[in-house]
Amino acid sequence: MTVPVWEFENAVWELEDIRLVVRANRFVEVEAYDFERAYPGNRTLGSFIDTRIWPLLGDRDFAVIGGRGLLPRGLTHVSRIRQSYG
Asked: How far is CA 26 from CA 18, 36, 62, in A?
């Protein structure tokens, strides 16, 4: 199933508490983000991207935005990114 980019971004935010911005027209269709459980917080952002984001977005450009508006590094733990929004 495919969904518009804006819906994909919202699904990631609602489940993962991670702000992801896909650089595409908001109505471009991508594969749905239909995971049921949040990604483990003790894993890295790089592994999150490799296992959950790239397979669904393919070659589309995107960015993960941390709570201070910066781009976290791939070795940052997912839990630390989630905490940055508080």
From this structure: 18, 24, 12
Are the C-beta atoms of residues 23 and 59 closer than 8 Å to each other? Answer: no
Give SS3 for 15: helix
- Mean pLDDT, residues 49-56: 98
Cα torsion 69, 54, 56, 10 to 10°: value is: -10
Considering all CA atoms of the chain, what is the largest pairwise distance in Å, rounded to the nearest integer?
A: 33
Q: Which amino acid is at 80?
A: R
Domain residue extents for the chain: 2-83
Query: What percent of the chain is modeled with pLDDT above 70?
Result: 100
Report the half-sphere exposure of 37 (CA within 13 A, side-chain side). 3
